[in-house]
């Protein structure tokens, strides 16, 4: 079923080897342990009074592991809903992520500031690298089933770079806050991916239409992804906030936002079906929108009440998007968004950015006390008014949309070059193009054999 | 396959929306951050000498995440063993839990004590809300396959309320200890659910009998649930015990109880089968009984030796229950207990309560040292004798059984009202009633098509 | 399909009960809480100035839980790739591990030093017990599909004992370092298992050949195991290193080693296939070799650069092993290595040991500062030169290989005794020998029924 064009035997190894060897050389040249992972540096600190417990490892490593599960199992299995694309969903997710987290370490390290010409790394940089990787995997969701692994690795390299630039502009240049990444991760990843899939538009994709759907067990595998994303989202949003009340509050806000979102998702899924039956696509995706929408404001004094309203709205918007907007986007705008990332990451990300801007604009010292310096350091220092912090947040959303769309446009055209082994229209959503695929259940074949035998007997009788 | 009675298009959205909007309003009115999630309050504490590490987040959040996984993946996938009920098992588990944890926050917060008329929340209340949710999911296991989502949401609201009342009586009024919830969670959830399923008795359930069993892959999905419950049970039992040795010891006791339980489960499963073959039902369920049975005494000085005896017995009792008691309960008492919660949560919960009472009665300052004030504060203060603490524990078991059975009776009758869209006897254990269900494996259909084609050719030849 | 020889009705229960009762008695006789799990002892410490946070529980419990997931879900599901051996893979993994961790507690406790004639246990001993269990599960991978549960339990008892002896020689007698167990866990488990499977060689195993392969969904289940092993390997390698920079650095090194390994695995998998298609066997296994190979040097100042080179090489070696070496081992050396543990644990373990020896030999106080005493205490004290520490490491590898091969030889012959109910050659890789196995998908049977009906109609027309 593989022809020369999609044969990866040279393309994939060359891409992987070259990229990995470049990464190793660059790591050798510019990366070093930070003061908490370096034996000498840390022991100098403990001798000057720090306890081992002050090591950021103990503050952040449990959150990191949850984020790591979201990236590899959460995103990976969420995309296994397609009937014949499970190997690619999990497997390409795996290799893209393994590449992206290395490149992200370099790009983010370079832009977040060098130390004596070196990038210093530790658990916080590992979380940030995973976050950046998450953004790439969102874009992967938009083009799922229609790209070769080489295209995906190339996309990852470009997208990580642009992600780091956008993140730098938002957090460092503009002074915006976005701990859980409503803007930097979700909005960016979604609109970048949507633009890429727009450029890669396939007018004859309906030739693979029968494979662009789920089967019973593939939907159950996808629920593994959904649930891990849902359960660990509180860790995601709180992973790099300030220590103490900030991590604690962010986890709590996200927890209630997701709970409310789940109820509104079930309600809307049933309401929008003519026979009132729940749709797995909504449950798998829209129930997560509450985590996306709490990404910016989660660390702020959003209150549980505010968090629940945000989650409630996010679930409604997301189901409506899947039901009514996605078909329009595909038909009118030629955006073939396989996983519906616009509904899970795009619109809820924008909602989260707006909620963040409003919540920031309403911040006062009366509400935050001395905690203001953790959440809004510039406001606490008196450099800016809270209302201006809100404006910064809003500008950040606009910048993110701009860079994502423009970046996606350019990268889309690069990926369109006919050298990367993209699958033909007839073989989209099909593992067999790039994977050795075994047969199906032995049991069934036995049964089928039985059927055949019985028939033969009947026919011969 | 859906008729008007089971059409959820109005019932489910209305139920979800009304309940969620009430919850949002109540959260707005009475819920606030506690002193560890509130920016101002926590920073007042750090300025008066507390370190960020004193924030309870760092003591409990890793345990919380494990508990969270047990609730959503553990319970959810454990129930996917049914061949055509995987969507409902995972999906209803999801929405019930998302509702229950919100309502539990309010009910438990109200009964555990208001602060200036407000409920204060943080990681400990989140764990408690998840615990209460666990109890509802146990009851869900008893009625699995025979109820509509609306019935389940209604049941959750009532059960959470009664759970909070029972928990208040046990822990606050009676002064019992039950950190891992042998009584409050497992015994309560099991007997409540058993009574509900008794009231909802379906004499003609055998019309759906062929669907009330597993298939090969559904049993593997269920093992995902089993293993996550098993692995994280040490976190469950230790999640809200006192800091330090208490959390540490509880996790250790539970670890060894579960290990011993697993061996006795395998032994009994093989021993009770005429051909010595292991039964997945036992492995999936009975191997967990050691965690249930260590729920009360786990935080006490039970010793590893004691923990292993408890686990060993729990496994034996549980397998015997599945093999010999469940059929009797169904035939004689008309209790149709789909998941056998009586064997996993009911009897082991009672065993755990008894072990807890005995262990408490044997407590001495010589054994516990100053740790006595963490585990048995009233005994440490000299308010009561250890033997009386044992009596308190025994009374607590009786109270729990009483409230669970009476509560289940009343709630069962409410759920019997013919307005909630329960499935007909012929369509129990069937996702298709409430879900859009896709076809099965594409590969197979292809093969079947092949079969059909071959046959046609043969027939036409 | 079960005959008398493989009937487990007496053998399995007797084995489980006797072993478990012996374990309980021994635990009662010699095991007690350590000073951090004992109420009195810990409270004596807190009163003399320790904070609850100093309790090792908070330093290690999150790592322990990750390790626990690797043991039960990681190893268990990794082996579900076989089409009809999922119950046994997950289920035997479960019971072996539950036994092994108890026995390991005793063996390791006995050899690591008694306290007043007692073994003291806490979270660190739990991690060590899980580590030892991991080694047994690696050996299980070599004999997968060809052994009865009784054989496996017997093997576990012997292997745990030998593991503890080898570990004692390496860490205590020789003074080697091996925090993540490249030698003690991976090399030992692999070569022990390979020798056992050599002794149990089945010349007629090709009678079960058609079952010794995967089907579509079994490969997806296996990816659950792979990903949990991959994600949590940083926790595995860092779980028992010294607090502070050591845990932090080890996790970081492992993270980058695995990322680089994943890229080289994908490259090699595609490169070695004539049509360039990726092979799930490689992805599921070789991508993990980077974690194995970082097991010894991970805690050292390997640098991210060094870690990536190690991971990169490990992936290449592992894929080459699967592709070219395993067939030779099977044909020439009669080693039937079901899971290819030689490629995932054997060769990468040896690589890791060598990397550890070299890195140790290069250690200087200039690089490690005062951290030298954590990683190489004997070097820091001036008892030995760094170069001699390297020699110690190399000797440790040789000792490990010797004990593993000799131990596997002896245990292999014990397991060959024809009393343990091993499956016949025709029924290897088949759950049905030891498990009640349900049918396959209901949906399919319905469809098949339809086919049959249609045919009957056609035939009758």
How would you portray this structure in words?
Chains A, B, C: It comes from Lates calcarifer (Barramundi). 3 copies of one chain form a homotrimer. Chain A is mostly helical and 461 residues long. The first copy, chain A, is built from 18 helices and 2 strands. Chain A has one domain: Ammonium transporter AmtB like domains (Ammonium transporter fold, Orthogonal Bundle). Chain A has helices spanning 11-30, 39-47, 56-78, 86-111, 123-143, 149-173, 182-199, 216-238, 245-271, 280-285, 289-293, 303-333, 341-361, 365-368, 372-375, 377-380, 386-416, 442-460, and strands at residues 31-33, 119-121. A two-stranded parallel ribbon of chain A has the order 1-2. Residues 442-461 of chain A have low confidence and may be disordered.
